[in-house]
Design brief:
Blueprint: H1 4-9, E1 17-20, E2 24-28, E3 38-42, H2 54-74, E4 79-83, E5 94-99, H3 115-128
Antiparallel strand pairs: 1-2, 2-3, 3-5, 4-5
Helix pairs in contact: 2-3
The structure holds adenosine monophosphate.
């Protein structure tokens, strides 16, 4: 069965998209830990990041780097943090999060954002990605 992220890539369920290439896709996390919490995924459905072939592993990280640079322009922060968990959704994803203090990368915390806020933020991030 297709993962929820494959359904997002296929356009079968909505997302707040920020970037797309031939093999990769990025969108806002629906339950953000901090504002600007982005997920970067390969379109190919692979569960575990270290099972990606070298080419796609590299491509995904270069894609995440490009997204992070755009994200940092829009979300004021000290650094963009990166995390890979993958316990809930069995489809490789790199979490990108704007960080202003160490505790910002804490999956026990979440911020409330309305659909309008998420939509506006995604558009700004998308426009800032070169
Ligand atoms: P994990 O697999 O533990 O790295 O966590 C999966 C992440 O995917 C969580 O941060 C969820 O909030 C996020 N997530 C799950 N479903 C969606 C969705 N439909 N759109 C955006 N983010 C999602």
């Amino acid at each position: 069965m297709a993962t929820i992220f494959s359904k997002i890539v296929a356009g079968e369920i909505p997302c707040y998209k920020v970037a797309e290439t031939e093999h990769c896709f990025a969108f806002l996390d629906i339950n953000p830990v901090v504002p600007g919490h982005v997920l970067c995924i390969p379109k190919k459905e692979v569960d575990y990041i270290f099972d990606l072939d070298d080419e796609l592993f590299t491509e995904l990280h270069l894609f995440a780097k490009r997204v992070a640079k755009g994200l940092k322009k829009v979300c004021p922060c000290i650094k963009i943090g990166e995390a890979v968990v993958g316990i809930d959704v069995p489809h490789v994803h790199i979490h990108l999060m704007p960080l202003n203090k160490p505790g910002d990368l804490n999956f026990a915390h979440h911020v409330e954002m309305t659909p309008d806020e998420l939509s506006a933020l995604a558009a700004r991030i998308a426009a800032a990605i070169e």
